[in-house]
Amino acid sequence: MTPSGHSPPVPPRGRRVSETIEQLRGRILGGEWPLGGRIPTEPQLVAALGVGRNTVREAVRALVHAGVLECRQGSGTYVVSTDELAPVVARRLTDDRMAEVVEVRRAFEVEAARLAALRRTEEDLTALDAALAERETAWRDGRFEEFVEADARLHVVVVAAAHNTMLAELYASVGTAMRASVAQASGSLEPERYTDHSRLVAAIHAGDPERAAHEAGAFLEHQAGA
Question: Which of 82, 100, 117 is at the close of a domain?
Fold first, then answer.
């Protein structure tokens, strides 16, 4: 026990920095600081986290180096990724590797769809329906960039419905690559490149894991042949 009137021992500096990095990462993953948003200023972080300026500075610098944060002169520090893997994947993304991207997506998305059919909640189903409707509206209105984002969002919702945290985190790391593959497969929203996702959502609604996995694999086969 700590004697009365004495402060608890101060953790070693390296441990304080590591703990602060984990706190920052937790707030990013928890959505408190969304992708593309600006994080609080250094004084605000000092007050919120209860650590010194140097500790905050080192923790932020580590996440900048990892590609999670980006410092913009005169503007602030922004969230540019949800994890350290995403920048690595993005750097490896080239047109001649797009077939590999589709294969990686298949590895994640087929299993995610199967698990989603088994584990989805009513909230998941509501989110799936909303994401599908947004995707269809963007396609119908010919809004290419919004369609790519809406399509990506639908797949993220499917993965979230699988309720596997590690799968969701790994899938987030291929977000840039996923959007690139969707954009390539869709062309300029050419009618012959349309891929129906309603059967996938219906299979998850029905709680049919085999059909959900089949539908997820089917549209990725379509993309691979686009």
Answer: 82
Close Cβ partners of 25 (under 8 Å, ≥ 6 residues apart)? 63, 68
Q: Are 27 and 33 in contact (CB under 8 A)?
A: yes
Q: Which residues of 25-49 are buried (b: 16+ CB within 10 A; e: fewer)?
A: bebbbeeebeeeeebbeeeebbeeb
Task: Provide the percentage of residues in the chain whose pLDDT is more than 90.
Answer: 38
Q: What is the DSSP letter of 41?
A: P
pLDDT tens sequence across 121-152: 999 999 999 999 999 999 999 988 888 888 88
Q: What gap in Å lies between CA 36 and CA 80, rounded to an integer?
A: 6
Q: Is the full-model pTM beyond 0.85? A: no
Distance of CA 117 to the CA centre of its chain: 20
Tell me the residue range of the domain where 19 lies.
13-82
